[in-house]
Amino acid sequence: MSERGHVPVMLAEVMSMLTPQPGEVALDGTIGLGGHSRCIGFALGTRGHLIGIDRDPEALAKARSALADLSCRVTLWHGNFAAAPALLAKMGVEKVDVAMLDLGVSSLQLDNPRRGFSFNRDGPLDMRMDPTQPLTAAAWLARASEEEMERVFRVYGGERFARRIARRIAEIRCQRTIDTTGRLAAIVRGAKPGRGRIDAATRVFQAIRIVVNNELEELERGLTGLLEILSSGGRLAILAFHSLEDRCVKNAFRRAAITGRVRLLCRKPLRPTAVERSTNPRSRSARLRVCQKL
């Protein structure tokens, strides 16, 4: 646990599949609070090199503190993992032996209402993983056409009532600005009939977050780059938390395996244990896929 209340998901499984060794070079493309990287860094020893990338400057600052007592060399970068090859080239690093991504929104972002990711507590409708990027969720919602909103809610959120919700948002934004999470959640809940097992706003918030942060396009680009910079025998682990992410990873790994570039270390995604799901509810949807470069 690298930060109070933060538990890295499937840590035991990640470590057992990546098996970082002393003296290796490891890359964590979504270092977050440093939970996974801390354990990886200890395994690298004094001759190892741990490289961490994150879009969130606040997360990087906390990771720097969490990793301060590691004996290996630690290099942290503010940026997107999709640009990892270019960032490594700046450091003069050609290949890495161990790489991982922990996709989706982090606890740091989700638990802070000012970041605008959660509908449980009211805050500004932001949702930017990188606060330095210009596009916020409120800005996207203000300019997107009704047809675009419907498509995003349906494709990225799997929302059955995408058309009805998009129409209602389009009607209300003509009357007042939709700039808080509470206001958007109330509109979505009011537009959907009945009550389901999960909050009515869940899928719409997920869809908007994905499009604001360009998550799936960056993941496609990032997977290509990571497979390129992986050394012979290097291991790559990806933790995904919803089906769109996992499908993207599965397809990229499968294509690489068919062409003989990698070996799949698990044919099906590994899932968290029942114990972990009960003690850390945010792990429930996690899927871990791992491959090794040939």
The largest β sheet comes out as: 7 strands, mixed
The counted number of beta strands is 7
Write the H/E string, N to C: HEHEHEHEHHHHHHHEHEHE
Uncertain spans, ≥5 residues at pLDDT below 50? Answer: 1-5
Could you tell me the mean pLDDT?
94
Number of helices: 13
Distance from first to last alpha carbon: 33 Å
Relative strand content: 5-15%
Gyration radius, to the nearest Å? 20 Å
Q: Into which percent range does the helicity of residues fall?
A: 40-55%
Backbone shape: globular
Which secondary-structure class do the elements indicate? Answer: alpha/beta
Strand order of the largest sheet: 3-2-1-4-5-7-6
Write the layout of secondary structure elements.
Layout: H1 11-18, E1 25-28, H2 35-44, E2 49-54, H3 57-66, E3 73-78, H4 84-91, E4 96-102, H5 107-110, H6 137-143, H7 146-157, H8 162-173, H9 181-191, H10 202-212, H11 215-229, E5 230-240, H12 243-258, E6 262-264, H13 274-279, E7 287-293
Parallel strand pairs: 1-2, 1-4, 2-3, 4-5
Antiparallel strand pairs: 5-7, 6-7
Protein model, in words:
This protein has 294 residues and is α/β, with parallel strands linked by helices. The protein has 13 helices and seven strands. 44% of the residues lie in helices and 15% in strands. Strands 3-2-1-4-5-7-6 form a seven-stranded mixed β-sheet, sandwiched between helices. Strand 2, helix 3 and strand 3 form a beta-alpha-beta unit. The longest helix has 16 residues. It is globular and about 60 Å long.
